[in-house]
Specification:
Blueprint: H1 17-43, H2 50-56, H3 60-88, H4 92-118
Helix pairs in contact: 1-3, 3-4
Length: 120
């Protein structure tokens, strides 16, 4: 006679849990910190114009920080979009196509950001 020890749960998803939660918090924190850096620089004395704006981004450390924040934004967007697609798009083929399209779009944005920051 078979004994039933409870129902078996079917768990779906990629099981990223803590890693996703942590990456969202870390990337959001980096973006918030960068925003504060920009706000402080904008509020410094002097007329806000092209020269001041270009001067803020002329330093190598600022270019590097900007690129790190852009990469953080891309990671943040990827985790969010992947979770949304996994939760709401049930058709595997459609979900895969949308995930690939998202990756292509984000890689394109990274390339564009590189060109803008370092004028390649």
């Amino acid at each position: 006679m078979a004994t039933n020890h409870g129902s078996k749960r079917t768990v779906v998803g990629a099981h990223y849990g803590l890693r996703d939660w942590l990456s969202q918090r870390v990337t959001a924190s980096l973006m918030a910190l960068f925003t504060l850096v920009i706000i402080v620089q904008v509020l410094l004395p002097g007329e806000m114009g092209y020269d001041k704006w270009a001067g803020m981004f002329s330093h190598q450390w600022m270019k590097l920080l900007t690129f790190v924040v852009i990469v953080s934004l891309l990671i943040h967007a990827w985790v969010g979009m992947r979770d949304i697609l996994m939760d709401y798009v049930k058709a595997v083929g459609a979900r895969l196509a949308l995930q690939v399209a998202t990756i292509v779009w984000l890689v394109g944005c990274a390339g564009w950001a590189l060109q803008v920051i370092w004028r390649l």
